[in-house]
Specification:
With 258 residues, the chain is of the alpha/beta class. The protein is 38% helix and 17% strand. It starts with a strand and ends with a helix. The chain has one domain: Alpha-Beta Barrel (TIM Barrel). It is globular. The longest helix is centred in the middle third of the chain and has 18 residues. Strand 3, helix 3 and strand 4 form a beta-alpha-beta unit.
């Protein structure tokens, strides 16, 4: 199977000591594409540097809602400059997170909207983060429409109504290792068969959200483990893994213009 980890954070220093081994294990698992996602100035810059170091690695740049309080006009200008690299294929991870509130709501909304506008100007697809925004996330997207905009809801964890609204906005749905977790993933396993085949992506969000069975051996997630997400996804959808892997890979390349 040919796989694409559509969202991970290989810029995390937890990989500094064995980065080459991590890539080797990914390659052995059939992972030929990896999107390294930025969340602020520092991580975005490192993501681009890593992506430029090896074929099959790509990067996104952006300010995560947790880091919105650190965002500024100058910081976004820095990211726009980074985005000139041919390895930058998306803008994100951006959005709203009213759960932990690491940044004030006003800052989150202001810079979320501004980053959408920048990505639209650059014609880059968007990587979205949403948690407990009580509908505000979708409201903003609906209030700022753009024909042809592409994006993915990273780590989808909503209900059927939210899924339908995301699909109406022509968004892709990112599925993580949560799908493999017995109790936590039950709702997601019920929703997974409802997602149109041409809108599904798989991701690790590494080093977070380690899937089963790997989570029984290690806490640190890595791109090689995206195969476990694919296998569980095929199981709950009643599809042949190889066929689903091919379509999901094509979906990812289409979203990121690869």
């Amino acid at each position: 199977m040919k796989l694409f980890d559509s969202h991970c954070h290989l810029d995390d220093r937890i990989y500094d000591k064995d980065f080459k081994d991590v890539l080797s294990r990914a390659d052995n698992a059939g992972v030929s594409g990896i999107m390294i996602v930025g969340v602020d100035k520092k991580s975005s810059a490192k993501a681009v540097t890593l992506a430029e170091s090896k074929p099959g690695l790509y990067a996104s740049v952006g300010f995560h809602p947790h880091d919105a309080k650190e965002c500024s006009k100058e910081a976004l200008e820095f990211l726009v400059k980074l985005a000139e690299s041919p390895k930058v294929k998306a803008w994100g991870e951006i959005g709203l997170d009213f759960n932990r509130m690491y940044s004030p709501r006003e800052d989150q909304e202001r810079w979320f909207i501004k980053q959408i506008e920048i990505a639209d100007e650059l014609n880059l697809p968007l990587i979205f983060h949403e948690r407990d925004s009580n509908g505000r996330f979708l409201e903003i997207l609906e209030e700022h429409p753009k024909t042809g905009r592409k994006g993915v809801i990273h780590c989808f964890s909503g209900d059927e109504e939210k899924l339908e609204r995301c699909l109406e906005l022509n968004l892709y749905i990112g599925i993580t290792g949560i799908l493999t977790i017995k109790s936590r993933g039950a709702k997601l396993r019920n929703l997974a068969p409802l997602i149109p085949t041409d809108r599904i992506l798989i991701e690790t969000d590494a080093p977070y959200l380690t899937p089963a069975p790997e989570k029984n051996k290690t806490r640190r997630n890595e791109p090689a483990f995206v195969k476990s997400v694919l296998l569980k996804l095929a199981e709950v959808r009643g599809e042949e893994p190889g066929d689903l892997a091919r379509v999901v890979y094509e979906n990812t390349c289409r979203l990121y213009n690869i």
